[in-house]
Amino acid sequence: MEKIKIIVNPKSGREQSIAKLSVLIGLISKDGYKIDLRFTTKRGDALRFASEDEGEDLIISVGGDGTLNEVVNGMYFANRKTPLAVLQCGTVNDFATVLNIPSNIKDFYNMIKIGKVMPVDLGMAGDRVFVNVAAGGFLTDIAYQVSEDKKTILGRMAYYLEGIKEVSKIGIINDIEFKKIKFESQEYKREEETLMFIIANSGHIGGFKNLAPDAEVYDGYLDVLIIKAINITDLPTLLTSILSGSHVSHEKVEYLKTKEIKISTKEKIVIDVDGEKAGKLPMTFRVLEKALNLVVN
Fold it and tell me: Averaged over 205-211, what is the pLDDT?
């Protein structure tokens, strides 16, 4: 390893990325590596920086899951196989958390110096790659329709289940509508009255480690969670079962593993990918096996 490209979202994690970055640069410089430092200022910057091959031996993404999503899309569509390291700095860092990637700078630097690389899966939602999760339905509708002050209460869309608790406090829960959605995969073909669905590449989503309890980033499958039409009064019980992972046996929940699934509806349903808006149904979701070379502990 001679040259390292560092792609930084300086606004991630209330700007803690800058503090971590300064320590990391000091360690890298001390060992004599060349550094190509790129700061994002707008959406799309991280994608562009990651797609540009300038001879680096390693790329480091510094930010949250949104920054990471852009970096991975840039690398994937440019067919880049350069190893990627993920430094956690954002509000949401599910992917790094599930892989036990250190957030402590010295431990992180030791990890990249050792250079252990593992090929991991990604997901594809339509024409956009996702690292951790794609979702649609109840909470994605809320995220893109309610006022800014209510969005602040809900937080980023990665906090799906936290949102279920919060919407009951802000008056949206009474306006809920179930959508008739068609799911088509080799394992499951059915049209359901649906509250929401989640397509997971890893088992750690929005801080909930059991939401997709069987998901692994290297198993060659996506895990699909479908929450069907349910009485609103039953939502707290369902939420409690999610904390333990027992929700997968709930009568109003379908849970399956698949390599590809097509989801369609006559209604307008926005798809959220790693916390960002990414088109609407109909859409096909598929796994991209071992598509990313990730530096791990």
Answer: 71
Measure the CA–CA gap between 44 and 74, rounded to whole angstroms: 9
Q: Are 213 and 265 contained in the same domain?
A: yes
Q: Are residues 72 and 95 in contact, defined by beta-carbon separation less than 8 angstroms?
A: no
Closest to 86 (Cα-Cα) out of 48, 106, 110, 112: 112
In this structure, is residue 33 part of a structural domain? yes
Per DSSP (E only), the strands in the chain are 3-8, 34-39, 58-63, 84-88, 117-125, 128-130, 133-137, 179-185, 189-200, 222-228, 253-258, 260-264, 270-273, 276-280, 283-295
Q: Which residues, 6 or more positions from 187, have their beta carbon under 8 angstroms from its beta carbon?
A: 256, 257, 258
Do residues 109 and 65 share a domain?
A: yes
Q: Which residues pair with 213 in a beta bridge?
A: none
Residue predicted with more confidence, 63 or 181: 181
Q: What Rg value do the Cα atoms of the chain yield, rounded?
A: 19
What residues are labeled active site? 276
* Domain total of the chain: 2
* Closest listed residue to residue 131, CA positions, set 105, 92, 161: 92
Residues 58 and 205 in one domain: no
- Residue 238 sits in the same domain as residue 161: yes
Q: Report how many helices (DSSP H) and strands (DSSP E) the chain contains, helices first.
A: 9, 15
Pairing of strands 189-200, 253-258: unpaired
Local structure of 165: helix, strand or coil: helix
Q: Do both 84 and 142 map to the same domain?
A: no
Q: Distance from CA of residue 93 to its chain's centroid?
A: 8
Q: Compute the distance between CA of residue 204 and CA of residue 217 in angstroms, rounded to an integer.
A: 10
Per residue in 214-253, pLDDT (tens digit) is 889 999 999 999 999 887 777 777 777 776 777 888 888 9
For residues 175 and 207, state if they share a domain: yes
Question: What pTM did the predictor assign?
Answer: 0.86
